[in-house]
Design brief:
The chain folds into three domains: about 15-220 and about 430-440, Aldehyde Dehydrogenase, Chain A, domain 1 (3-Layer(aba) Sandwich); about 225-415, 3-Layer(aba) Sandwich (Aldehyde Dehydrogenase, Chain A, domain 2), CATH 3.40.309; about 455-505, no CATH class. Helix content is about 45%, strand content about 15%. It contains 17 helices and 18 strands. It has helices spanning about 10-25, 35-50, 50-60, 65-90, 130-140, 155-170, 180-190, 200-215, 235-250, 265-285, 300-310, 360-370, 385-395, 430-435, 450-455, 465-475, 485-505, and strands at about 95, 105-115, 120, 145-150, 175, 195-200, 215-220, 225-230, 260-265, 315-320, 325, 330, 335, 355-360, 375-380, 400, 425, 435-445. Nicotinamide-adenine-dinucleotide (NAD) binds near residues 125, 180, 203, 255 and 418. Nicotinamide-adenine-dinucleotide binds near residues 149 and 222. One of its GO terms (molecular function) is aldehyde dehydrogenase (NAD+) activity.
Length: about 500
Amino acid sequence: MTTPILQYNTKTEIEQTALTVQQTFKSGYTRPLKFRRHQLEQLWRLIDDNTDALCDALYMDLRKHKYEATLGELITAKEEINDALVHLEEWARDEQTTPSFINRVGTTCIKRKEPKGAVLVIAPWNYPVYLALTPLVGAIAAGCTAVLKPSEVTPHSAKLLAELVPRYLDNRAFMVVNGGVPETTQLLDHKWDHIFYTGNGTVAKIIMKAAAKNLTSLTLELGGKSPVIIDENANMTVAAKRVVFGKTFNAGQTCVAPDYILLTAKAEEKFISALKQAFLEMYGPDPQASKDYGRIVNTRHFKRLCNLLMENKSGDVVIGGQADENDLFIAPTVIANVERDDKLMKEEIFGPLLPLIRVTDIDDAIEYINSKDEPLVLYIFSTNKKLVNKVLDSTRSGGVLVNDTLMHVSEGTLPFGGTGPSGMGSYHGRSSFDAFTHVRSTMIKGLSPVMESAMALRYAPYTTRNMSIAKMLLETTPQFKRGFLQKYIKWIVVVLLFGVHYARNRRL
Ligand code: NAD
């Protein structure tokens, strides 16, 4: 019997881990900004010092080229850390608000940014380093403690993370648990202050059920079928290159990979010829021989993809179609003229198969998109502003990228996340900080008796006179009805109340 690459944590270890991070959070140890800053710097060093080891693990797990590992996992994670380091004080700062009229005098209103607490981060296999460490950036920046559960499907990366995290991060606050379903289930039995899950929608429902037991807040980063609209008048050469990039990066095993193409019969011919050229330029005539092209993660997913292709009844394979189980290789494959309700259109493809669906016009494309679940991203290739706006105004999706693929993921100024079945909540940049932060509304009032005469209006015994004054103070005249008197009536009433208060005090 061969020894497994990845050692799973025992029940006792998991109990101890959950308890430790929960106690550490309660002690307030992770709250100071100095601590958070140091941990973020350490996380950056973890990636930087171990670039080769991380790239090797990713190669062994997914045959991911060093170029893809560096660009798609390591630099992107380091940039998230850099962004958090630059903005940490700004994001964590209390925000003072201008109180409404009734609280205007003697009151301070503050939005305090407080860490949610001890959090659980559950990561998937397709970007096993980036999708494990990036949520952790948000958790550290927000002042939380965290348990990270990497995916067991990519054991080399999971094993390496379990070795590196305790060497670089404070292991009273940040710990890794490795395991499969039973171990994750045990983790989910604990009461967490937030759960951040990235993966498929079926497991997301299990996570949500577990979170519901304790009313724990959730971020769900899921997937779905992300469509691409190709306008007849788009530059087909550029569009094809960008679609090929999005579909072949990590062999199409990307949550935001273009899932299928919507185009008219007129556009199809030009687009297929541009696709052929783009595949040839990037991977040569035999993509299996290309060192740049990745592999399917395991036999289960290889078989799932082959079955999808075999059980799909309609369409013609116009590019690719080759597969080799021993090498977990599936060629980039384009299937033209696929029928809308065929097998390939039933579930997220999550691999290098690309169906082309014919539409009669843009309205037909929009109708088709709207007949399916809201996707994680919607891609549009067009320079026609009217057409782009029409699509934006009449569809829904987690995000939109016009005239490119994947690049929105690396944009830290934009929140990244899905909507409906493609996810709940978002992260990246400031949104990562916000995902792990509770905004605690804090109102501070003075105790001076000066305001009492105005405030005393709310106390019993209730009188008709007080009711009229309170109404005048509390009820706002809508903007469209406001004249000069309505604008200043509240201030006039306050001055009168002060006057009465002053006169009474002088008499005493
Ligand atoms: P996976 O199989 O690695 O599962 C994800 C995590 O869930 C793992 O840590 C795993 O241990 C855990 N898990 C699996 N079954 C479980 C169960 N029954 N109970 C509790 N935990 C369980 O990854 P996956 O789900 O195959 O990931 C692929 C999916 O994730 C795709 O749908 C993809 O679109 C989506 N995804 C989304 C994003 C995003 O950012 N929105 C990123 C990557 C992947």
